[in-house]
């Protein structure tokens, strides 16, 4: 695959009109009050199939190829959804709610403030129980697993090793920025908006693969690194990100007492990405944290994240985050 455009330009057919699903009690959920919406066990593509009256805005008619976005206003306090056909990212818009959320066999009790993110992997059910009866709003983003496969292959990640991990109540400024940009595009039905939304879908898929797949686990696979050496390599990289020379591949290989070529192969086998890609991603993650939490000048952040210059930092940041450091900071 020669370019990002080649991924985005392919007609996907990922999001066709979903089949309908019916509440088991055949009744319409009432607005307000404690009501439990439970549906038949057939898999569904997204929550609008079973809860259409909660949809405030949808990308269904906008021609987006690789992602579906729904802005939802929940007026029932409990709902259950069977295993999803797609990966789902839920961004809490407001107000804050206390919720018990079961995603597959994992249970979470969280106070979900605006900006809190929940990730539901494809093939996983979700049971949502809210602590009060107040309406709440959330943005739902759905990605087809096949699109995730295409994206993973584009960034040279072994898709067969990917398993997205359930999350609830996490903070991720990158995903939040993408979500708010997509929410804005929901109100702008034009060709430019469609192309931009499809580009953001690719960045969102990359973020899921890089940050919320099982690649984050330090595990041994055939031909990979021993856990002790892998952990030591990761710690060395993260502790020296601000020193571009000190964290070169040769230095990391020497730290774990491996040859350069053997280390590069074994690291990629264990982590799913090359050492260089991992280092760059970690530098960008550090930069995003500094952009979000400090008022440091962008030039200073570039140096603290280990980039040789502000221009190099800006070029790399735009390539991976699809926006400039200044624009990213302005959304905090």
Description:
The strands form two sheets. This protein has a six-stranded antiparallel β-sheet. It has a five-stranded mixed β-sheet with strand order 1-4-9-6-7, with no helix packed on it. Strand 6 (97-103) and strand 7 (106-112) form a beta hairpin. The longest helix has 21 residues, at 191-211. With 332 residues, the chain is α+β, with helices and mostly antiparallel strands. It is built from eleven helices and eleven strands. The two termini are 34 Å apart. The model is unreliable at 1-14, 16-35 and 216-221 (pLDDT under 50). The chain has helices spanning 4-8, 145-154, 173-186, 191-211, 227-239, 249-255, 260-271, 275-293, 298-304, 310-321, 325-330, and strands spanning 36-37, 55-58, 67-74, 78-81, 87-94, 97-103, 106-112, 117-120, 126-130, 136-143, 167-170. The chain folds into two domains: 14-214, Jelly Rolls (Sandwich), CATH 2.60.120.280; 218-330, Arc Repressor Mutant, subunit A. 38% of the residues lie in helices and 18% in strands.
> What amount of the residues lies in strands?
15-25%
Specify the CATH class of the largest domain: Mainly Beta
Within CATH, the superfamily of the largest domain carries the name: Regulatory protein AraC
CATH topology of the largest domain: Jelly Rolls
| First and last CA, distance | 34 Å
Largest sheet: 6 strands, antiparallel
How are the SSEs placed, and which strands pair?
Layout: H1 4-8, E1 36-37, E2 55-58, E3 67-74, E4 78-81, E5 87-94, E6 97-103, E7 106-112, E8 117-120, E9 126-130, E10 136-143, H2 145-154, E11 167-170, H3 173-186, H4 191-211, H5 227-239, H6 249-255, H7 260-271, H8 275-293, H9 298-304, H10 310-321, H11 325-330
Parallel strand pairs: 1-4
Antiparallel strand pairs: 2-3, 3-10, 4-9, 5-8, 5-10, 6-7, 6-9, 8-11
